Amino acid sequence: MSTLLIKNAALAATFDDSMRRIENCDIFVRDNRIAAIGQKLDIKEADKTIDASGMLVMPGMVNCHHHLYQTLTRNIPRVQEAELFPWLVNLYEIWAALTPEALYWSTLTGLGELLLTGCTTSTDHFYLFPDHCPDNLFDQQIKAAKKIGIRFQPTRGSMSRGKDQGGLPPTRVVQKEDKILEDCERVIKAYHDPDPLAMIKIALAPCSPFSVTADLLKNTAEMARKYKVRCHTHLAETQDEDAYCLNVYGKRPYDLMESVGWTGDDIWFAHCVYLNEDEIKRAAETGTGISHCPASNMRLGSGIAPIPSMVDHNCAVGLGVDGSASNDASDMLGEVRQCMLLHRLRSGVDSMPAERALTLATRGGARVLGYKELGKLEVGAGADIIGISLKKLGYAGALSDPVAAVVFCGDSHIVDFSVVNGQQVVKDGKLCLMDEMEIFEEANRWSNYMLEAAKKATGVDMCSKEGPGFEAPRPSKEKKA
Q1: Strands 230-235 and 203-206
Q2: What tens digit of pLDDT does each residue of 105-148 get?
Q3: Which residue of 63, 177, 281, 352 has the lowest C-beta tally within 10 Å?
């Protein structure tokens, strides 16, 4: 049994039911749970001690939506000003060159950024399976997460509607539906751990209403419920998606998902920019979760999700940094700041206080991903804890409210320490278990490989804005995959 003492925190923001703030706080961890929290704990000895003097200590944040493989295709010139559909069809031509090695290093890149910016639990939506890759491609993500030390609930995603079926992706990156379901069952049996504080859980995630069939949505939900795992997909992200669903299915996106069994407290959607008030109420009544991705929605010009209304209706809402090619960063604390600022434009300056945005990133995210014992600091909770030094120039003059200061202010979003499941994985603002420069160099190597491979395959230089790119196909009525 291992023990850890975090001592002398200037302030602990607990995000428990009472939203306590404890000054001069100690936290004692036994194995992977918080055993005691309070002032001047009488702890004689611990296996490891972290001096948190001058720091704000709070629960680790939970990232509810990402595409980690996209860290290799950030800031691509051809799509810097593109909206979602043209953005997708152009990047698919690069992503088609993905390899197992590229997936491994891209996953480490994104997870490393998340750990350094205060995230201790993340999901990932991996849905791209090029036909030249081995059947166990998904497993590279599990390998990377175990290596870097983050709590991980990746989703075995899927696409079955290629361009020849009226979808957006090229045929060489989609799969047959029987093969998709077979591998979904494989990864659940191989990796899913039902323990409430499991380091690895699995969810299932068809990519979107415009890249899979209604049959695959139904069959995926049935399999997930058989094995008691969660389901995830994109939904109501753009007006183009609304038009697509109405044209192909004769339904709005949320109505489509209801018709195929995709609502409930084991389901969560990314984006939901275009849910109306009635749909928000229905999501709240069923416990259906929503991952808000403000940076991505701004980057692609998709719109502003009605998050204040969702929160008022007690929807399960968390934050997601989204794919690193539509956000261009895996910056969790930065996402909190974007959330706080964005909603003041539409809903008023009092609609998103800093503490509310942090609550979405902690308790909210834990609720969305089904971790009842995370997102808070209290006895019995999981020992996922971060510390941010307030003794920095960026916080000078801001310490009348230290909790809000880390959202409003700061000259860096890098945390000083991070503990996941009772183990320290960030120390002095650096990863403990991996060499950051090795990740950097390997990620750039595989990024260059994919860009060159795409240029050879298509004749299009994605690093140039000159010349024609690839146009999104027009939607057609659903065909059987």
Answers
A1: parallel
A2: 999 999 999 999 999 999 999 999 999 999 999 999 999 999 99
A3: 281
Residues whose CB falls within 8 Å of the CB of residue 346, separated by 6 or more in sequence, listed in order: 304
**Would you say residue 480 has pLDDT above 80?**
no
426: which strand partners? 418, 431
Domain ranges of the chain: 3-59+376-431, 61-369
Tens digits of residue pLDDT in 464-474? 988 888 877 66
Residue for token digits 């880390």? 406
Q: Which CATH architecture has domain 61-369?
A: Alpha-Beta Barrel (3.20)
Asked if domains 3-59+376-431 and 61-369 share a fold, the reply is: no
Q: Do 288 and 272 touch, CB atoms closer than 8 A?
A: no
Q: What is the pLDDT of residue 481?
A: 37
The Cα-based distances of 367 to 25, 277, 288, 359 in angstroms read 26, 22, 10, 11
* Secondary structure E strands in 190-238: 203-206, 230-235
pLDDT tens-place string over residues 43-82? 989 999 999 999 999 999 999 999 999 999 999 999 999 9
Q: Which helix (H) or strand (E) holds 356?
A: helix 354-359
First to last CA, the chain: 52
Q: What is the largest CA-CA distance in the chain?
A: 69
**SS3 of residue 315 by DSSP:** coil
Closest CA to 358 of 334, 392, 390: 334
Instruction: Enter the CATH code of domain 3-59+376-431.
Output: 2.30.40.10
The amino acid sitting at 90 is N
Q: Could you tell me which of 456, 458, 476 has the C-alpha nearest to residue 90? A: 458
pLDDT recorded at residue 222: 98
